[in-house]
Structure formats: C-alpha cells, structure tokens
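INTERNAL AUDIT FORM
Audit reference: QA-55
Scope: verify that the stored structure record matches its stored sequence.
Auditor: D.O.
Record contents follow.
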Amino acid sequence: MEDVITEAAPPSRLLEEDLNNFTPPSKPLPSPFLLSPHTQQQQPLKPNLLIIAISSPSLSLFQSFLNSQTLTASLILPELPLSHSDNTIDIHSISSTILLAAVRCPVPDNRAYAIADALLNNQIRPDAVVILDSIQPMNHRGLLSSDEAVAFKLESSAERKKAVGEKLLGGLEYYPSGSVVDGLGAAILGRCQILNLRASLCVSWPHFDSSVVLLLKDLIQPLAEFDFGLNRDEALKFGRNRDHVFQSHLYI
C-alpha cells in the first residue's frame, strides 16, 4: 500500500496557467508621490539641473548638502514605512538653480519606472538631468578590477546632439557596447528620453571606494563649481570595504 505522506502527488490535470486562474490577482501598489511640506516654494520646481545620486560614492560626495535646511521635497513610496528616514527619496536645493535627489533606499526593479515617472512630472521640470549610478558587474562586458576606479556615461538623444564643449559630463567615455544598465538609473534615463530632456547617466566602479568619490567630484564640480569641502583624507573615510577581492570576468 502506498504511503500517502511520502509519495509524490499525481500530476495535475490542469495546465500551470490554468491554475493561476484560481488565484486572485495581487493588489497593485499605490503610486509614489511627491510631498513638499518643508518649504513654501511654489510648484512646479524648475531647476536648471537635477542631479540624482543613486550610488553610494555619489551620496557620500553630497553628504554635506543633505540637511534639513536644504530639504525641499520628499518622494514617498507608500509601501515602505515612514518610520525609517532612508525610506524616502529626498530632494535638496543645493544651489539657486540645482536640485539633488538623494536615493538612499534600495529600489526594486518593478518600482523603478513608477518612481522615475513621479520624480520627473509636472512638479519638477528640470532643464537637464545628471544621474549617478554604479556599474553592476553582471551587466558589464569586460574586466572590472577592484584596484581601478572607472566611470562611463550614457546619454539621451537631446544631450547627444550637444557639442563636445556643451556636454554635461564631457570628460567621460561612453559605456562599452554590449554592456547594459538596468534599475532606477536606466528608468530615469528612459523617462528623460520620452520627455526629450538633456540627460546623462554616469555609472562608476567600484561600488565602495574613495577614488570613485574623488572621480565624481572632478566630474560634477565644473557644472556649478561646487565647494564640496572634501579632500583626499576625508574621502579615504569612505574607502574600499566590500570590493577588495572582486574581479568580474563575466562577458555577455
């Protein structure tokens, strides 16, 4: 006699897609929204430049600007509890013409387009956008060394038409052919393409390294001659701590 506990169940007579018909669809997540309780600035915000800091080195670079005095608005993700301060994407006014969006929370890929749409809508209308993200090793076609800081760029069509001297990130080479970018950075660049905005996406490696902080400083400083107040000794506080033995030999 068969053991009903240990014997495998017989195959279903229904196809896998038919079984899904009996499962109620999950409720759609509410859309992210922008909240501006911190200042009395009149909407929409129209900066000359919107910088979106996603990578850890870029957040470290702008750390001195991230305070309650510069906070202008917050992008709320309704599915995350507000009890944690890093669960919002905060918009800071770091000069009279430049806004900075600090993305401290990890963004799931299935929410990237919703966040990009909420960030670049009628409430924020920049003339140009710079996105600072990291290279994901599995998406890069080539060798990545943990001992060498590298950065590349991708551009929207509106930015690519500009002359070399007018580029947002003129000192960078283009991301190697065959490599890809995904996640929030790619979603924001795609949104800029739809809106016909000038936009440049910078992806850097390693994820955690003082040399990347200094590299980004040299790239961003010409845009508005920022005074980051950051020297090499201070950048070393944000030194290599996770990528010290990693090298990518993966080709796609």
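Auditor finding: record pair retrieved intact. The chain has one domain: 46-248.
Action required: none
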